Amino acid sequence: MEWGLVLLLMLGLLCVLMALGLPVAFAFFGVNIVGAFIFLGGEAGLSQLARGAFASLANFTLVPIPLFLLMGEVLFQTGVAFRAVDAVDRLIARVPGRLSIVSVLGGTVFSSLSGSTIANTAVLGSLLLPEMLKRGYHPSLAMGPIMATGGIAMLIPPSALAVLLGSLAGISISKLLIAGIIPGLMMSVLFLGYVIGRAALNPSLAPSYDVAALAPWERWRPFIVYVLPLFGIFVVVVGSILAGWATPTESAALGCVASVIAAAAYRSLTWQSLLKACRETAKISVMILFIIVASVTFSQILAFSGATNGLLAVIEGIGVSEFTILVMMLGILLFLGAFMDQVSMIMITLPFFIPLAETVGINSLWLGVLMLIVMEVSFTTPPFGLLLYVMKGVAPPEITLRQIYVAAAPFILLAMIVLALLVAVPDLATWLPERIR
């Protein structure tokens, strides 16, 4: 069968199954079964499918995914994360858009601990949004920073999605984790600047209010007690990787131990909260592992059938530049991000993008960071961005989806500015990982 027909059959069947409402992992499994039977030799192909599924999971590099998720869940289920956000709130005095600034700073702190964009948005939304609306904040300046900062968890380690992308794309997981730090902090600074500037130009968007006068120690004590020790967890995880003392798996294990110790030290750790954290981690981990099995097999079938090589040959024949190919890749991801979840985007594009990047000489680490940023943007891209619906779930009933879309728009533009800067200056993504020993 011609490679074009193979591609049409595999992707067409995938789109049909997803349009029918089948979960992503099972849609890919259905396509894989058909592809294995046709292109890998009938029953022998199905046997190979089972062997490949086992081999794709027998991979030690996947261990950080559940460990990073558990680290965040422990802090979330025990309530330690809420105390950290409240400590940041106390520290900030009367400035324009005070609570929006708290959401950006608190979200950045929690991003460095949770590894989950959904948890980040849910925590900030449930904790800060009711108070912001009660104080008369405009919905766009209340919800926008929360959603935007929630997505930063995809970039700042520990990021479960970065581990997933690195393991599937063959990119060094430790370097990909470290590479997200500078872009994540750049976004945080841009978000802060936008919030302060907009609130200063139009104070009615974020009305000021009297803050209880506190002595310096009363303001700083919660920060010292509840934030600095948690920042120590981030230092343990990232510092051990940067120093070359631990692999991502070992650093993730250290982070889990540190989060449990922190929760116990704050007397927030109970058997009930620990079991709930383990259950939530298991649910998400099993889903991710199912997706990994489906993705690896899908890539193998496309490669074996000649579809991947056929498409690469066509692109090479056109003779387009490296920059043009990179822009095309990012454009495809941005388009898919408006309609698909991030894992589906990875599964569909990686079988083509990674071989293509190797062919034209695109740095795979740089490409990985750019993909993470695009997926961060897609989390808040209408009409199906996941964080838009997380925000809808925690927002009051009178808040409409249109208001949520409007709130997300300026922060999508700011994230695109960071993406453009990284395309223009690759060292912003690659400089820090190159310092790893």
Describe this structure in words.
- 78% of the residues lie in helices and 0% in strands.
- The model has no long low-confidence stretch (mean pLDDT 82).
- By secondary structure, it is mainly alpha-helical.
- It has helices spanning 3-19, 24-39, 43-57, 64-77, 80-91, 98-114, 117-134, 139-151, 160-169, 173-179, 181-201, 216-242, 248-265, 271-305, 307-318, 322-337, 342-360, 364-378, 386-394, 401-424, 427-430.
- The protein has 21 helices and no strands.
- It has one domain (3-435).
What's the arrangement of secondary structure elements?
Blueprint: H1 3-19, H2 24-39, H3 43-57, H4 64-77, H5 80-91, H6 98-114, H7 117-134, H8 139-151, H9 160-169, H10 173-179, H11 181-201, H12 216-242, H13 248-265, H14 271-305, H15 307-318, H16 322-337, H17 342-360, H18 364-378, H19 386-394, H20 401-424, H21 427-430
Keywords:
single chain, 437 residues, mainly alpha, globular
The count of domains is: 1
Give the SSE string.
HHHHHHHHHHHHHHHHHHHHH
Distance between the termini: 48 Å
What share of the residues does DSSP label as strand, in percent? under 5%
Number of strands: 0
Number of helical stretches of at least 4 residues: 21
- Uncertain runs with pLDDT below 50, 5 residues or more? none
Largest sheet: none
Q: Mean pLDDT, nearest integer?
A: 82
Question: Looking at the structure, what is the overall shape?
Answer: globular
Gyration radius from CA atoms, angstroms: 22 Å
The secondary structure category is mainly alpha
